[in-house]
From TrEMBL:
Single biological process term from Gene Ontology: cell adhesion involved in single-species biofilm formation
Species lineage: Bacteria, Pseudomonadati, Pseudomonadota, Gammaproteobacteria, Oceanospirillales
Listed cofactors: Mg(2+)
Source species of the chain: Marinomonas alcarazii
InterPro entries: Diguanylate_Cyclase, GGDEF_dom, Nucleotide_cyclase, Rev_trsase/Diguanyl_cyclase
Keywords: Membrane, Transmembrane, Transmembrane helix
EC number of the protein: 2.7.7.65
UniProt protein name: diguanylate cyclase
């Protein structure tokens, strides 16, 4: 439901998209199927390297175990780490192994290395992904350099690893740009949400405004013809407020309004809704209370306000008119009933409550 206190600041931290356990398991199935398919193709064609003959079943077993553990209460983030460790560990060591002399140099294993950077941002939040990216980058480049130098001149090994370093740096840079774009979009959405919240809140008292309570009515489906909901409306009007302004000035008048709103907010149930209906008029919407309970609430509010002393101003009173959902077929009609009772309360001397006879 709508917040009555908008967020003061927008969280500027970079956060990774949340991977739900079902999505994580889907990714694991893709990994299991992918590894199994490549293993089957390599084994069937007879070109399977010694490294792969061992590493494929190890990785597949690890993925299956992580898949099964993911159904337990195990920390999901740790499982994400573990899965990433298996993938990154496999891809780096496989490519390095293939670059060692006699192991089928420059096989196509290196082309998969870019996946390490993509997957790290998929699994980890950005704070952890950044150092992981640096570690993977350094391990990949130095590992390949030392593998190549064993069978090539330093110059040749340097050229190949430099190429690799540039390509990988571009991968990282582009991925980082995508993440930043996404974070900017998230911030724009958060800001829009915050502005939307402001449109429903009265700036002076921080209570909901008319549009705000309208929205609450819609969200709670209170005016639905099919499902009759039990609610009551209390229209609370400050007595002789014009005098408060005339005698003390508008700024003090504002302070009185804010203090009364605060007092009402602290006196109602957390599920009750406070709205500034207009000038010196507030509305409390309360749900699922009996008429007696609503009268008790109204009496508590009347008493609470009457005890306020604001900048030496005492004896502030309110008149309250009550309307119940069972008394009418639309919220407009309930408001009208509450308003009529408020009029009666004012006519009968103020500082009092009026509701229909039970
Ligand atoms: N300080 C301040 N005054 C406001 C604000 N909004 C409305 N008012 C004042 O509220 C007063 C309402 O006056 P009236 O409608 O005559 O009502 P009242 O003096 O409270 O008299 P009763 O309701 O009949 O008891 C006016 O003087 C408005 O200027 C506001 O945001 N700040």
């Amino acid at each position: 439901m709508m917040k009555t206190q908008p967020n003061k600041s927008i969280d500027k931290k970079l956060t990774a998209a949340q991977i739900s356990p079902p999505l994580f398991r889907q990714l694991l199935i893709v990994a299991i199927l992918g590894f199994s398919a490549i293993w089957a193709i390599d084994a069937y064609s007879g070109i399977i390297a010694v490294f792969d003959a061992f590493s494929y079943p190890i990785c597949i077993t690890a993925f299956i175990l992580i898949y099964l553990i993911s159904f337990s209460r195990a920390n999901q983030q740790s499982l994400h780490y573990l899965a990433y460790l298996v993938v990154a560990g496999y891809l780096i060591s496989c490519s390095i192994w293939h670059h060692l002399p006699g192991n089928g140099q420059f096989s196509n294993s290196a082309q998969w290395l870019g996946l390490n950077y993509v997957i790290v941002y998929l699994f980890l939040d950005v704070k952890k992904a950044a150092p992981a990216t640096a570690i993977v980058f350094v391990a990949t480049i130095t590992g390949h350099y030392f593998a190549l130098i064993q069978n090539h001149t330093t110059g040749e090994a340097l050229v190949v690893t430099l190429n690799m370093a540039i390509a990988h740096a571009i991968y990282i840079f582009l991925l980082w740009t995508v993440i930043k774009l996404r974070v900017t979009t998230d911030q724009v959405i958060a800001r829009a949400d915050m502005l939307e919240d402001f449109a429903y809140i009265d700036v002076l008292t921080r209570a909901l405004n008319r549009r705000g309570i309208e929205k609450v009515f819609n969200e709670l489906n209170l005016d639905s013809a099919e499902q009759k909901k039990n609610y009551a409306i209390l229209i609370i009007d400050i007595d002789h407020f014009k005098q408060v302004n005339d005698l003390n000035g508008h700024l003090i008048g504002d302070k009185v309004l804010t203090s009364i709103a605060g007092k009402i907010r602290r006196s109602i149930h957390p599920n009750d809704i406070l709205c500034r209906w207009g000038g010196e008029e507030f509305v409390v919407l309360t749900l699922n209370r009996t008429p007696q309970q609503v009268m008790t609430l109204a009496e508590n509010l009347r008493l609470a306000v009457s005890q306020l002393v604001i900048d030496d101003i005492a004896n502030i009173t309110v008149s309250i008119g009550v309307g119940h959902s069972h008394e009418a077929s639309s919220k407009e009609a309930v408001f009208k009933i509450a308003d009529d009772h408020l009029y009666d309360a004012k006519q009968s001397g103020r500082n009092t409550i009026r509701a229909s006879q039970a």
